[in-house]
Design brief:
By secondary structure, this protein is an alpha+beta fold. The protein folds into two domains: about 25-265, L,D-transpeptidase catalytic domain-like (Beta Barrel); about 280-344, Muramoyl-pentapeptide Carboxypeptidase, domain 1 (Orthogonal Bundle). It has helices at about 1-20, 25-50, 155-165, 190-200, 225-230, 235, 240-260, 280-290, 305-315, 325-330, and strands spanning about 55-65, 70-75, 80-90, 110-115, 125, 145, 145-150, 175, 185, 210-215, 265-270, 340-344. A hairpin with a 4-residue loop joins strand 1 (about 55-65) and strand 2 (about 70-75). The longest helix has 22 residues, at about 25-50. The relative contact order is 0.13.
Length: about 350
């Protein structure tokens, strides 16, 4: 009897070890397990918008105030991306304004690239990839660790931080599960499985995976000054600098809305040209008016009259005459703006 009991216990232990070892840890194993759990749902989402599963190009857009993250996707050969799903964000810094320093608990705002990590000593990066345990709280070493690393800071973030008097911009910003944040973007575990699986299918031949993080949906926010008043670093950064930063984000936001394609981003000097609407245009008109090249009240619209005024100024100063106020024209007018996102 004792022999049979010992044999039974031994067999039970042999069954238990493979179950623990089966917890996926590597990138392929994690994605394969997630596919078995939610792949059929993701395939149905794709069918609803006319995409083959899995999509080959993916782009993410997060909106802090609305606590939402959009998943955009397309197949190879398609020009425009389609909105595949909008998921709720259950934990993040929802207050407006960019992250400026280590320890301020802010979620960054801007245009970033993303990659994937599979290890962490933090419990909230771990999820149990079993049907009955997905929504349970994470624990280090129990289950699988997988997260989306957001490449913050980019080239512009340290410049903005230094302008506000901060040296350390902070970092280690991720999208992950378990509904907890210290500046990261956190979803419920099941929703993060959806997000991670779709993002993980992004193919390198389509460029690096982009994630755009906005303070709010610009189309639904008429008064950005009211939003700016809530920013914890407003005194250090300055209202006008913050508003110029948001106007720059709005340009990329609207460009994607028009093209439905990943945004080509570089970092450069401000160039104002016909059709622009920006607080910077007010400063440009005011400077030209002081120098006798522009008449009328300065407003935020780069009008045909302003273009002609810029051309006259450029001709008088011996500059290249193109009607656009680039860095050289700005310097001649005594104007200067910090580097910003430039969209091609």
């Amino acid at each position: 009897m004792r022999i049979h009991l010992r044999i039974g216990l031994l067999l039970l232990s042999l069954w238990t070890v493979p179950a623990l070892a089966a917890q996926p840890r590597g990138s392929r194993a994690v994605l394969a397990r997630i596919e078995t759990l939610v792949g059929s749902e993701l395939e149905a989402w794709c069918r609803q918008v006319g995409l083959a599963y899995p999509p080959q190009a993916v782009l993410l857009r997060a909106f802090k105030k609305e606590r939402e993250i959009e998943i955009w996707a397309r197949n190879t050969g398609q020009e425009r991306m389609r909105l595949l799903q909008t998921l709720p964000i259950c934990a993040l810094d929802a207050d407006p304004g960019p992250k400026l320093r280590q320890g301020d608990h802010k979620t960054p705002e801007g245009f970033y690239y993303a990659s994937f990590h599979y290890s962490s000593s933090n419990w909230y990066m771990w999820i149990k990839l079993e049907p009955e345990a997905i929504d349970s709280m994470g624990a280090v070493g129990d289950g699988s660790c997988f997260k989306i690393y957001i490449h913050y800071p980019n080239e512009l973030d340290p410049l903005r931080s230094r302008a506000a008097g901060f040296r350390n911009t902070g970092g280690s910003i991720f999208a992950h599960g378990n509904c907890v944040t210290d500046g990261c973007i956190s979803l419920s575990n099941r929703n993060f499985l959806y997000l991670f699986a779709l993002a993980r299918h992004h193919a390198p031949r389509h460029g690096r995976l982009q994630i755009h993080i906005f303070p709010f949906r610009f189309a639904g926010t008429a008064d950005m000054r009211a939003e700016a008043a809530r920013y914890i670093h407003l005194k250090a950064l300055g209202e006008e600098r913050l508003l110029r930063f948001w106007e720059n984000l709005r340009q990329g936001y609207e460009l994607f809305n028009q093209r439905r394609q990943p945004v080509k981003i570089r970092f450069g000097q401000t160039v104002l040209r016909a059709g622009d609407v920006s607080p910077d245009v007010i400063r440009l008109k005011s400077a030209l008016k002081r120098n006798g090249f522009f008449e009328g009240e300065p407003d935020a619209s780069f009008s045909p009259e302003l273009e002609q005024a810029v051309r006259r100024f450029q001709k008088r100063k011996g500059l290249g005459v193109d009607g656009a106020a680039g860095p050289t024209t700005q310097r001649k007018l005594g104007l200067h703006w910090p580097r910003r996102y430039v969209f091609d």
